[in-house]
Amino acid sequence: MLDVTTIFVVSILSDTLFCLCGLLLWRAQPQVPGMLPLALTFAARGGGLLVRAAAPAVAPFLGVWLGNFLLAVAAALMLEGFARFLGQPVPRRTQALALLGVGISWPLLLYFRPDDITLRISIMALLGALCYARCALLFLRDREQPAILRRVTVTWWSIVAASCAAWAGAVWIFPPHGLFEPNPLQEIYVLLHLLSFMVKGMMTAILVGVRLRAELLARIEDERAQLLILSHELRTPLAIVSRSSELLEEGSGSANPSSARRVAQIRSATARMSALVEQFLVLARQDENAERAERFDLAQEIRSLASSPRLVLDLPKQLAFTGDRRMIGIIFSNIVDNALKYSPPHSPVDVSLSADDSRIYLTVKDRGVGLGPAEDRKRLGEKFFRAPNTRGTAGMGLGLYTVRKLAARHGGNITLEPHEGGGAVATVTLLGTPNAA
Questions:
Q1: 49-52 long-range contacts, Cβ below 8 Å, gap at least 24?
Q2: Percent with pLDDT over 70 in the chain
Q3: Which of 318, 347, 342, 321 is nearest to 428 (CA)?
Q4: 346: helix, coil or strand?
């Protein structure tokens, strides 16, 4: 059996480690409530054990009182942290009882009954049982944490509270002669306290992980819902504008070339807005369900989508591919639209399609503005990011982001490289078992 001195040393070291981890977590995730009090719990307990072990040799009265008072502060901070974390009222009465019970009664006990260590240990054990039982009650009332985690936590704190209460009575039957004197039951009790705080540290880490995961999923769901609402609200007016421009085009026709040109511009802008809405819809829905995979001719699909006369195609006659046809269409449209938009009006854009044993490569080369400074290239493909050399052209910074996300759904990615002589080369890699002809 470990002696009390060794247990104290291990406890102080573990409390220091957990305190540092808690402070780092508090700084990294300040939105998680209760993290600072929980981190300071370990600091107060480790400090109390250190004072309790070292100070009595120099100042017995101060060492015993201050050491035990810091342990009471640790219990109060533990209740504060867990209550805030769970979003429940802080048990102020229990905190006050623990702090006043040690802060005021200990000097009196040390003055009137300085040798009665049994009474002081019994009182500390009862206060510990009360605080641990209050922790169990906090988790028992909580309905936000997963049920299995809540049951385990309540069970553990209940066991620790019951053990403290049992020791408060057993200490009168097997009274110790001193805190560091050999006493198997006291060593078991102190070891249980060490385990209780080590488990507390691990439970706190698990609880924070569960909380952060739930917040992330809620944020993703909220963002998806907002995108769906926005897309739904934009579709109807865009359809009206598109249909009205068609009617204007049919009515004005060749009567007024200037009016016809303006109508064509309206239709072009409407088409771009409709494509942007479709991008929002894809981004909002891409994680809800698996892509609708089907076997189709990728080369033929690209030929059907390549409507611009500026596109120079280098495609095999046939290239069978299994994937989501609609997502592949959005990938192609985005990278080709970028190449056309950021290139001189009459410059050609090369589109090639090739395959090896396990991958398909869609390459688009333009002679446009290029990729910009080297420090900006690393950010290309981030949501809403646009390089400085593209700011004069309309855009939202979603095209490459969408391509990267949809390519990843097909086990691939997108790479961007400078084109010799100016421009950029975008290569989309897709995972598959192609059958080219």
A1: 49/8, 49/11, 49/12, 49/15, 50/12, 52/8, 52/179
A2: 84
A3: 321
A4: coil
CA–CA gap between residue 157 and residue 193 (Å, rounded): 11
What CATH number does the domain containing 363 carry?
3.30.565.10
In a shared domain, residues 311 and 242: no
pTM beyond 0.85: no
Cβ pair 127, 103 in contact under 8 A:
no
Cα 129 to Cα 125: distance, rounded to the nearest angstrom: 6
HSE-up (13 A, CA, CB side) for residue 152: 12
Task: Report the residue count for the chain.
Answer: 437
Domain count, the chain: 3
Smallest CA-to-CA distance from 341 within 396, 293, 296, 378 is with 396
Q: Are residues 127 and 240 in the same domain?
A: no
Rounded distance between C-alpha atoms, residue 14 and residue 306, angstroms = 64
Query: What is the residue type of 51?
Result: V
pLDDT at 298 over 70: yes
Tokens of 287: 């994680």
- Which residues, 6 or more positions from 399, have their beta carbon under 8 angstroms from its beta carbon? 279, 334, 335, 337, 338
Give buried/exposed letters for 107-137 (b at 16+ CB in 10 A, else e).
eebbeeeeeebbebbbbbbbbbbbbbbbbbb
Give residue 237's domain range. 222-285
Tens-digit pLDDT profile for residues 250-272? 766 555 677 777 777 777 777 76
Taking only the tens place, the pLDDT of each residue in 197-248 is 788 888 888 888 888 888 887 887 777 777 667 666 777 787 777 777 777 7
